[in-house]
Amino acid sequence: METNQLSAEQGHMPAAELSKLVRLALPILTAQLAQMAMVLVDTAMAGRVSAVDLAGVALGGALMWPVMMFVMGVLQAVTPTVSHLNGADRQREVGEVIRQALWLAALGAALLIAFVLNAESVYALMVVDPAAIPVSVGYLAATAWGIPALMGYFVLRFLCEGLGFTRPAMFIAVSALVVKIPLNYVFIYGAFGMPAMGGVGCGVATAIVMWVELGLILLVASRPRFQLTGWQRRFSWPDWQMMARLMGIGIPIGATMFFEMGLFAVVALLLGRFGADVVAAHTIAINLGGVTFMFPLALGMAATIRVGFNVGAGKYEAAAYVAKLAVGLTLGVAVLLGIFVAVARHSIAALYSTDAQVVGLAASLMMFVAVFQLFDSAQATTIGALRGYKDTRVPMAITLVGYWCVGLPVALTLGYGWLGAPMGAYGFWIGLTVALMFVAASVLSRLWWLRRNPSVIVSLAHR
User: Fold this and answer.
1) 8 A C-beta contact, residue 284 and residue 352
2) Which label site among 212, 354, 390, 427 has the fewest CB atoms less than 10 Å from its CB?
3) Is 76 within 8 Å of 246 (Cβ atoms)?
4) Pairwise CA distance, residues 400 & 384, whole Å
5) CA 261, CA 176: separation in Å to the nearest integer?
6) Helical H segments across 48-93, by residue range
7) CB 146 within 8 A of CB 208
8) 139: buried, middle or exposed (CB in 10 Å: 19+, 13-18, 0-12)?
9) How far, in Å, CA of 70 to CA of 53, rounded?
10) Under a CB-based contact definition with an 8 Å cutoff, are residues 80 and 162 in contact?
């Protein structure tokens, strides 16, 4: 009877689940694009002051954001945990999860602040333009004032998303972008009695925006629909056992994100020896790849929510179907985007630069974007689906091996010509593509295996 009922349900599943995934993913996509736009706004407005201010802001972001993303990944354990409880109709247990996650957020904020306030010692170990260091240090010191608010925002955002509400993050991100532009103007260039602070002003504006985001998400999370969770109902001291469970799920998420971001950051640095034109072309192509990556990233986050909900409800076949649908959808979008990139690559490159050599090389590298984003899309959405099962440690190991033990050696060997003629940027991009192929094939195999092992799913669900 149960099998027949499930078959009947699956007859209605495609349209219903597709609609749910898209409704969850589109707001996430919009929020991610708005966040990217804020970085572009900082770059454009600081660049109008001077190249030193632009470099200072860029260096500050390069140092802070990978670590910030790691901490955010740890807190992202909230999403599958809440979605499991929501699916199991145990919403009253969500409140304690959130209170303990807020303690984790406070700890993460303290560590991150300590790190950014010691940026000057980090730069001393790197080959960095000395003129840009004071701007970068000032930018990070100003941003540090907003880090506690951002950590709190992440926890409450993931509460909303775990319960299936992804629109608040979209509205808040768009609102933050609208607020960021005039604040940048006031603090970067000087207005309304404020002194012109240059690149440091970006940090001041960023810190204010972080507090605005926290204020807005508090308004959302205080609405009646969240009252059942009771997250505001009482105060809780740290529960180290629950915090350890959250970290057991979240640290692998943060590490997975850090391993991928780290490889792309290292490749950008290693390409520096080939000259400014190569670095510029690589930056253009990788920026385009970052935009196309927002689509599978959003679908992966939506898959986390829906898979987690179904696993929490004990509907393992439905969870497997959602994962399969999400991966199929992201591959379809990737094919369309790949065709668009391949056809429009010269026109896209020309939007970034008027240098014919840079445009030509960037357009060539964009062919790698057209191909590798198929694998990038597959791995991002599949990892998102695995997070819905609370399966985070195996994907972490896969990304460590794929990016750093497979992709980087291939990139170095081909790019620097250790076994033949140096291929330069093309060799490094082949290495990135090989890494993504390895990771995509491995996590897809993991998902295929996991969905056929209910005992492992149950074990992961009780983490």
Assistant:
1) yes
2) 354
3) no
4) 17
5) 24
6) 51-75, 78-87
7) yes
8) buried
9) 26
10) yes
Is the separation of the CB atoms in 137 and 120 below 8 Å? yes
CA distance 396 to 356: 41
pLDDT digits (tens, 9 = 90+) for 279-315: 778 778 888 888 888 999 999 999 999 999 999 989 8
Distances (CA, A) of 29 to 170, 174, 417: 8, 11, 39
**For residue 243, what are the CA distances in angstroms to 168, 229, 390, 396?**
26, 18, 15, 20
Report which residue type is found at 235. Answer: F
- Reported residue count of the chain is 463
What are the backbone dihedrals phi and psi of residue 227, each rounded to the nearest 5 degrees, phi first? Answer: -65, -30
Q: What are phi and psi of 423, to 5 degrees?
A: -100, -5
Record the tokens describing residue 447, joined without a space. 């998902």
pLDDT, tens digit, 9 for 90 and up, residues 61-76: 877 888 888 999 999 9
Side chain identity, residue 264: F
Q: What is the spatial distance between Cα 314 and Cα 318, in angstroms, rounded to a whole number?
A: 9
How far is residue 29's CA from residue 169's CA, in Å, rounded to a whole number?
10
pTM, 2 dp: 0.87
- Alpha carbons 354 and 434: distance in angstroms, whole number: 31
Q: Using the 8-state DSSP alphabet, how is residue 127 labeled?
A: -
Closest CA to 62 of 210, 264, 253: 264
